[in-house]
Amino acid sequence: MLRVEHLQIGDLPLFTFEVTAGECLAVEGPSGSGKTRLLRAIADLDPAPGQVFLDGAERSEMPASAWRKQVRYCAAEPGWWTETAAPVFETAGKAAAARLDRLLAALGLGAELLDRPLALVSTGERQRLALARALIDEPKVLLLDEPTAALDPQATALVDELIKYQKLAGRTVLLVSHDRDQIERLSDARMLLPKRPDTGATAERAA
């Protein structure tokens, strides 16, 4: 279970909510309401006072790298620091090789894409590769920021099915998406961020 208590992010309301294993919480709100900032704060990528617990362990009780291995943020515009995707997956170890094959197949990607220069890979393919990168070592929590923004309907359907599988596998998912139909398909609960937050308010989580 992911539990957030009194998390303070700039002038946004204080966030207090929980998401159970196998559940998808959709974070909604207009542009600039803080959806991405919330995900990044939970992943401990940006400083934010307050407490975030995973299965009872608070994030400050472990190194940031250990926390992020379990609580994985997947950006809307993922960054890459290698010429090809292959080196990123090689660091996951031999045990992840079969898992990678399954992920690529589930996302409609061929293994040859790993060795292609990322500069020659389409935006949608890079986005799906980034999702595979986020899942390769099986984190407990997925923080997905517009995971299908650059995808066509067919690729979006593949990603949706993969997210559903992650839920069945017991992973917790926080989803930011502009696609209302996708939110209807995947979410078990929703949290709406106001356009003009009042400092000190508590964000409400509505089922």
Write the SSE topology.
Blueprint: E1 2-7, E2 15-19, E3 24-28, H1 35-42, E4 51-54, E5 57-58, H2 64-70, E6 71-74, H3 86-90, H4 97-106, H5 123-135, E7 141-145, H6 153-168, E8 172-176, H7 180-186, E9 189-192, E10 205-206
Parallel strand pairs: 3-8, 3-9, 6-7, 7-8
Antiparallel strand pairs: 1-2, 1-4, 4-5, 9-10
Distance between the termini: 17 Å
Number of domains: 1
In CATH, the topology is named Rossmann fold
Kindly state the number of beta strands: 10
Q: SSE string, helix = H, strand = E? A: EEEHEEHEHHHEHEHEE
Any guess at the CATH architecture? Answer: 3-Layer(aba) Sandwich
Rg over alpha carbons: 17 Å
Q: Helix content range of the residues, please?
A: 25-40%
Residue windows where pLDDT falls under 50 for at least 5 positions: 199-204
Number of helices: 7
Please tell me what the overall shape is: globular
Average pLDDT rating: 92
Instruction: Classify the secondary structure makeup into a structural class.
Output: alpha/beta
| Percent of residues in beta strands | 15-25%
How is the largest sheet built, in terms of strand order? 6-7-8-3-9-10
Task: Report the sheet with the most strands, covering strand number, pairing sense and barrel closure.
Answer: 6 strands, mixed
CATH superfamily: P-loop containing nucleotide triphosphate hydrolases
What is the CATH first-level class name?
Alpha Beta
